[in-house]
Amino acid sequence: MIETGRVLVIDDDPGTCHTISDVLELHGHAVESATAGYAGLERLTATPVDAAIVDIRLPDISGLDLLRAIRASSPDTEVIFITGHGSVATAVEAVNGAAFSYLTKPFEMPQLVAALEKALEKRRLGRALRDSEARYRALVEGSIQGLSIHRGFAIEFANASLAAMFGYAGPPELIGRDLRVLVAPDEIPRVEGYAAACQEGGPAPPRYEFQGVRRDGTLIWVETLMSVTSWRHGTALLATFVDVTERKRLEDHLRQSQKMEAIGRLAGGVAHDFNNLLTVISGRAQIELLRPELSGPSRRNIDLIAEAASRASTLTKQLLAFSRKQVLQPRVLDVDIVVARMEPLLRRLIGEDIDLVTATEPGLGRVRADPGQLEQVVLNLAVNARDAMPRGGRLTVETANAELDEAYARQQADVHPGPYVILAVSDTGVGMDAETRAHLFEPFFTTKGVGEGTGLGLATVYGIVKQSGGHITAYSEVGRGTTIKIYLPRVDAASEVRGAEPEPVVLRRGSETVLLVEDDEAVRELTCEVLEMHGYTVLAVADAGEAPRVLEGASRPIHLLVTDVVMPRLSGRELTERLRSLRPGLKVLYISGYAGTAVVHHGVLDPGTPFLQKPFTPDALLRSVRKVLDDGG
Description:
Helix content is 43%, strand content 22%.
């Protein structure tokens, strides 16, 4: 598109002025003319133009002096010089004076028109660039939370954002104050060092974080950038301030979450490996105890091995709970009912010198959780509270409905807004300091003496709550007790938990054929031996990929698949789907040291899925196999 604009022609030859004006008007330009320099300058001052075409030799003022005057009064006006008496030196001087172009008479009018269009295009681009820079500057300045200029820490300028950030009514309350009143006392030496480095031009970080103090004493995190600037006939430090308190809080949440996740992965992996070992140790011990000729010290030694394996199994289950890799079988339940059923046990557990108080809310909503694991949560919290009250006190278990809004959810990690049920356990014990609270839910962290605790109680609680989709918080002060609140998502469904029923007597022997898929050799051999000792026929494979071939080539019907959950080539869930495509209705029992990616991608098994947790005893294996064969799976 051809650029058009307002043009002023200044030439002492009236004929030249008229000719140029006529040509430019034909090209769409609005043209004015003058035959003297000062007359042209007056017109330009009264009515700014986009471009001026100026004869470099005028009777009242030289073209170069006129150029300087135009630059002073109208910096955006582009100037094109024309002359019949030019020289190389004059042309160089004109261009150095910021003239856009220099044409020597006689010239062709298309040449002048082209030069003018280029000058107008340059002016348009320059204005667009300045507008863009102005918008960018406004955006940057608007995003700066605070701004100050200070000499020797005396504030000489402050904006409204800085005053609001630090709790002052306005900039006048800050002018004249020492900048260090905005800095937490223990941070002042560091801020002084940073300011000195910026003042002297020495090495200093481009941005610097420190703890600031608001007028009311509240501490905030502030990011500042200081640089030397010209100010009132001298230099001063220009400082920008951004309140990064929220960012620091989110970073702390992220670091804590990543730390807990890393510890959880380690704990889950360790527990899985130990569970395979404990399955073999416990199973072999149980088989040895079945030998009638075993007696005396030998039987006692085997008993001790079995007991130690059982205790170790409890520890690995706690590790799995923390790592959120245990298998949950959730049900819709009333938390109040769970607490009420546990009350007699809790009273015996805490002793006579501690009062137990339960407070429930009428109309309490229901939650979806594993009943046994929820009982474990209450039990662990009660034990922790009891140990915090060595001289007695009060243990309070409360339930309530709650609505967590968007504002609360934004302040917490992995919390979604919505309806929740609160389970709170409070004690009047010794309380905790900030350092203890920071490590409260980490596995193996304990404030108890050697041999008095594993440090897994609250880690187990944390894992169960997180795996159940919940949220946990701790409130505590030294000498003022502790309250731990658990938030479980509320569900709109009928309770699926009924009263406890007596466990039926299970016939442990059988004659069916079992396909066993287990990649751990020792566990595979033990499982085969136990099942075969009790009448079952076992077809065992280590590689899940071999199972379809064994199933199709078996000379007798296969009644049950017993498979590990996590295996190198094929998961237990995938294997089951493949085998059931060949043999619809095939019954299955899952076994595992943890619930892996295939079956518990979301942390739970499908309700009713038969599962046997490693380490398992021979009796537990036989009961589970018999139950699946008799009931389905």
